[in-house]
């Protein structure tokens, strides 16, 4: 090699040595980023484990038996309806309406998502029947019907819900609707729901049968309860299940044994069967032990926003499966799925029992026979029940069966003072026409008047 060629080769070697690291760096960096991204992807998709809250209390004393994170804010789902029942029963107790008061189903109520009864707008259902359907079917449309019948509107009823929560000492609760359909501003806690359940049992003992109805019959259809404890766990006598994807599977359950009554609340479980097994475990623990010296009101509030359990509770579920998820699977025992905490043997044994056979409670649509009182429905806030005049509901609406079909538009309510104004105007108009006719007759020739007869 000539000296010139050697120098050229040396320069090329040196240049390559200098440039290659820089040229390689972007590729190495890209590879590193790609590797890191691939490694991080599962962590982003996975949902951090959220310990599900629970609490067990002695009803008589209000003392805590067991609890975990029970003051953590959580989406309550349909256990919200316990507060709907509380406010409605309080309105009955104060004389604002009775259990026989018919409630109008509005278009707003009919638009609610399932679970629902599917009554057409204009249909009527008594408050007593509506409450029973609410507890068994967890009917979102009837929750709105009750709210509008008691308070005039969903918003006014929510104000009453929050006022009641404050009066009861529920520190982590805020309600915006009567049915528990998801809203980020609608939340509670396991402790608060235990407070509410206890208040219902102590304040309205004569209404305890609302919470342990195994099934109801409406026409030729029988609707069973969602509560997997009723009829299978000895002494179980209520109260309410709940499920939405953000909330997970919730339950407020009460049971009585040897004269001692206990309430347990479980929030955020991953299926209906796991929820039932969890509640059985807590009930067994409660009846086997004694309460602590801590009262339910003594527990400090944890604060913070409620977690969203959608990925855990509904990951991989179709929309149809999500709608069906609230129903307990009575065909199989409650056994832990892979990766879930095993249920106690007693819980599995209880849940392995077949669906109980109930004598259904007969319910009906429409006012009670012979009822002559006011009908409650949507109306302005602070307006007494019965001041709104509604057009008569169609016959088909009065005989509505359970349906999920789209509802027809609601008859427009007419305010009483507007109705009176329209009536007065109609009378005045008729009188004017009569006068005009008489005047015209007087101005006509006699023979024309005779011919008119």
TrEMBL record:
A GO BP annotation: cell wall organization
Location of the Peptidase S11 D-alanyl-D-alanine carboxypeptidase A N-terminal domain: 50-270
SUPFAM superfamilies linked: beta-lactamase/transpeptidase-like
A GO MF label: serine-type D-Ala-D-Ala carboxypeptidase activity
Entry keyword Methyltransferase: no
Basic residues bias (residue ranges): 414-425
Record keywords, A-Z: Cell shape, Cell wall biogenesis/degradation, Hydrolase, Peptidoglycan synthesis, Signal
InterPro entries: Beta-lactam/transpept-like (IPR012338), Peptidase_S11 (IPR018044), Peptidase_S11_N (IPR001967)
Residues noted as binding substrate in the record, renumbered to the chain: 240
Region (Disordered): 403-453
List of catalytic residues: 78, 81, 138
One matching Pfam family: Peptidase_S11
Top-rank lineage group of the source organism: Bacteria
Keyword Cell wall biogenesis/degradation recorded: yes
Signal peptide start and end residues: 1-31
Bias (Basic and acidic residues): 432-453
Protein family: Belongs to the peptidase S11 family.
Name under which the protein is recorded: Peptidase S11 D-alanyl-D-alanine carboxypeptidase A N-terminal domain-containing protein
Species of the source: Rhodoblastus sphagnicola
């Amino acid at each position: 090699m000539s000296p010139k060629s050697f120098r050229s080769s040396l320069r090329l070697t040196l240049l390559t040595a200098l440039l290659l690291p820089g040229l390689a760096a972007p590729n190495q960096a890209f590879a590193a980023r790609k590797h890191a991204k691939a490694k991080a992807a599962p962590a982003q998709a996975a949902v951090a484990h959220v310990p599900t809250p629970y609490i067990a209390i002695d009803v008589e004393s209000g003392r805590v038996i067991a609890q975990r994170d029970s003051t953590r804010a959580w989406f309550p789902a349909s256990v919200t309806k316990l507060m709907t029942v509380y406010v409605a029963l309080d309105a009955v107790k104060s004389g604002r309406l009775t259990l026989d008061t018919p409630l109008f189903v509005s278009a707003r109520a009919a638009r609610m998502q399932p679970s629902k009864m599917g009554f057409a707008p204009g249909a009527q259902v008594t408050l007593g029947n509506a409450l029973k359907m609410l507890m068994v079917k967890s009917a979102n449309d009837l929750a709105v019907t009750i709210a509008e019948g008691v308070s005039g509107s969903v918003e006014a009823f929510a104000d009453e819900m929050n006022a009641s929560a404050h009066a009861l000492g529920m520190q982590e609760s805020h309600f915006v609707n009567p049915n528990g359909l998801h809203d980020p501003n609608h939340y509670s806690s396991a402790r608060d729901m235990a407070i509410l359940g206890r208040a219902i049992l102590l304040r309205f003992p004569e209404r305890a049968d609302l919470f342990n109805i195994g099934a109801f019959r409406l026409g030729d259809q029988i609707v069973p309860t969602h509560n997997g404890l009723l009829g299978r766990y000895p002494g179980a006598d209520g109260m309410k299940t709940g499920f939405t994807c953000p909330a997970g599977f919730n339950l407020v359950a009460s049971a009585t044994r040897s004269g001692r009554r206990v309430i347990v609340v479980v929030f955020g479980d991953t299926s209906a069967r796991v929820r039932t097994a969890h509640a059985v475990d807590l009930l067994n623990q409660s009846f086997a032990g004694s309460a602590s010296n801590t009262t339910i009101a003594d527990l400090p509030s944890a604060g913070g926003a409620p977690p969203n359990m959608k990925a855990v509770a509904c990951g991989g579920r179709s929309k149809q499966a999500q709608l069906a998820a609230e129903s307990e699977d009575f065909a199989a025992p409650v056994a832990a799925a892979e990766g879930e905490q095993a249920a106690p043997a007693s819980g599995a044994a209880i849940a392995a029992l077949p669906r109980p056979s109930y004598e259904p409670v007969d319910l009906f649509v429409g006012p009670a026979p012979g009822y002559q009182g006011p009908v409650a429905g949507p109306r302005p806030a602070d307006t007494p029940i019965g001041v709104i005049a509604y057009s008569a509901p169609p016959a088909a609406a009065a005989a509505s069966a359970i349906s999920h079909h789209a509802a027809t538009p609601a008859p427009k309510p007419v305010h009483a003072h507007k109705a009176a104004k329209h009536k007065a105007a109609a009378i005045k108009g008729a009188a004017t026409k009569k006068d005009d006719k008489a005047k015209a007759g007087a101005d006509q020739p006699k023979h024309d008047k005779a011919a008119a007869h």
